Amino acid sequence: MNFITWLIVGGVIGWLASMMMRTNGQQGMFLNVVVGVAGAMLAGWFITPLIGVGTINQDNFSLPALLVSFVGASLLLAIVNLFNRGSAR
Fold it and tell me: Does pTM surpass 0.70?
């Protein structure tokens, strides 16, 4: 059951990040889940050691963990946009 919750929360985080980065029209539900989970993984590697808050990938479903995962998903989309479009936005 935890796996399903992880996918749903990852999808919502990926969708919110894609709305913020204005890439929502280019990706569907599957890519939103991938962006949310991969962004949380990225945040777990780079942001978590700096501030000491876990991510949704670490079975931590608190508000700070959701925010860190959201920032990671947004950074992932910014990096992808930088390579695809030549600008972060």
Answer: yes
